[in-house]
Structure formats: structure tokens, C-alpha cells
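User: Sequence recovery, please. Input:
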């Protein structure tokens, strides 16, 4: 886990509900159990400031950083998908986006990565489809400065065939099975009564591994997925263990936020 990813997880999983701000010293202490050194934390924070995710703020305990509105939208959207809170039922319609061509390769690759994160997949170079509109789409399109036409579409054909052509469900299912095996091993190494810093580190790695599926799994409706979809078993394990480990992890966060 690199420092930037760890910071996103920390702000999203803990700090967002605690005002979305923390001192630099607190960030360094909180990421120490993940073996992320102070220079790496500071470098990642500076990068996130340049990218518009964090902004400097003066706190009573010294200099710190708080989330920007852009970051709040991303964290809230991520939390909805990670913990599946408030996920709407599928209407049977598809959300179609046609974006203008982007010539600059870095911008084009960034746009592709962000659209994939929001659950869209390419039908063609400039045409993307998703099972539902993303609340974060407007901010993404405006931030990239591209023009996009959006359509609420009904497929003339078999939606399962569209899914099979557009998303590699076999690879995604295999990734879920692999993650479940590694997550079970990770949590299994945590002894009963472990110190809260170790629980925090284990839970952070668990959440980080699960969060990576947001870049792969668009959250397709269950009736479009194969029978016995591995993602459901993996999700049940994640939700159970993330909730079980949360009290000790939260105690670790609260303790280090309170330290001078």
C-alpha cells in the first residue's frame, strides 16, 4: 500500500466522519502501523494538495490538511460502493456517455481511469456505458474540461450479452476468489486481544484490498451476474470482518488524533 492510497483510505474510512481534517503529525502517527515513513506521508500529502484532494489548514495542534469538496464527493461515492449503503435497484436502463475526443495522452488515460472507477466501461473509444448514473460524473467531466453527451438508454437486445462483451466477469470473479483467500489469511494472523494499532493496520489492509475492486467491478445488478457470483461471498466476509475490527481501529484513530 503506497502512502497516497493509504491517505485516501484513512480520510475516507475514519477522518471523513471526524471533520475531514488532521494535523500532519497525526497523519504520520496514523500511518506508522502500515510501515509508511513520515517523508512518504508528507510527499503524498503535497501531491494530493496539487491534485485538489486536500487543502492546508491551521489547526490548534499545528499545520494540517482537510478534504476539499472534490475529495468529499469522491469519499462519499466510494463509501456508498464499499459498504453498499443506499445502492439503488437497477431500473433496467443504462447510462450512456459520449465524450469528445481527448488528444493529450495523460488527460485521456486519467479520464479512462476515473470513468472506470465510477463504474463505466468503454463501448468504443469515446462511448461509455454503466448500469446507473454516477453522482460524481458531473464533477469529473467539469474537472477534466471535456464535453460529454449523456443518455438514459434502453438496450435493444440481451443485457447479459452486453455485460459479457463489455466486462470480463471471469477475471473479476477470479479476483474476488483470490482476494477472499488472501483476506482470510490476513485476518487469521490477527491474535485475539491484539493491540489496537495492529488491528488498525489489519483492517486498513483489508479495506484497501477491497477498495481496489472499485476499479474493476462496476456494481452490476445481481440478475445480470452468473449464478454463485464469487463477489457476494467475498462481500459478506468483508462486511463481517470490517465491522468486527472497526471498534479497535477507531479507538486507535481517536487516540492519535487527540495526542498533542
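Assistant: Recovered sequence (260 residues):
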Amino acid at each position: 500500500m503506497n502512502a497516497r492510497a493509504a491517505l485516501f483510505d484513512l480520510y475516507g474510512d475514519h477522518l471523513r466522519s471526524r471533520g475531514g481534517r488532521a494535523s500532519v503529525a497525526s497523519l504520520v502517527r496514523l500511518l506508522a502501523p502500515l510501515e509508511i515513513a513520515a517523508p512518504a506521508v508528507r510527499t503524498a500529502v503535497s501531491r494530493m494538495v496539487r491534485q485538489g484532494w486536500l487543502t492546508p489548514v491551521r489547526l490548534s495542534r499545528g499545520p494540517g490538511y482537510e478534504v476539499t469538496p472534490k475529495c468529499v464527493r469522491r469519499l462519499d461515492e466510494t463509501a456508498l460502493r464499499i459498504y453498499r449503503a443506499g445502492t439503488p435497484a437497477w431500473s433496467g436502463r443504462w447510462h450512456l456517455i459520449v465524450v469528445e475526443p481527448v488528444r493529450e495522452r495523460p488527460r485521456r488515460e486519467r479520464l479512462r481511469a476515473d470513468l472506470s472507477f465510477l463504474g463505466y466501461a468503454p463501448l468504443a473509444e469515446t462511448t461509455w456505458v454503466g448500469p446507473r448514473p454516477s453522482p460524481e460524473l458531473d464533477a469529473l467531466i467539469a474537472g477534466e474540461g471535456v464535453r460529454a453527451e449523456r443518455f438514459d438508454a434502453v438496450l435493444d437486445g440481451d443485457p447479459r450479452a452486453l455485460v459479457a462483451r463489455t466486462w470480463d466477469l471471469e477475471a473479476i470473479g477470479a479476483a474476488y476468489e483470490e482476494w477472499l483467500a488472501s483476506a482470510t489469511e490476513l485476518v487469521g494472523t490477527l491474535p485475539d486481544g491484539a493491540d489496537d494499532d495492529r488491528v488498525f493496520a489489519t483492517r486498513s489492509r483489508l479495506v484497501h484490498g477491497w477498495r481496489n475492486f472499485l476499479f474493476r467491478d462496476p456494481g452490476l445488478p445481481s440478475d445480470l451476474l452468473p449464478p454463485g457470483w464469487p463477489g457476494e461471498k467475498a462481500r459478506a466476509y468483508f462486511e463481517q470482518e470490517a465491522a468486527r475490527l472497526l471498534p479497535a481501529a477507531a479507538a486507535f484513530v481517536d487516540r492519535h488524533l487527540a495526542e498533542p
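The first strand starts at residue 21 and ends at 23.
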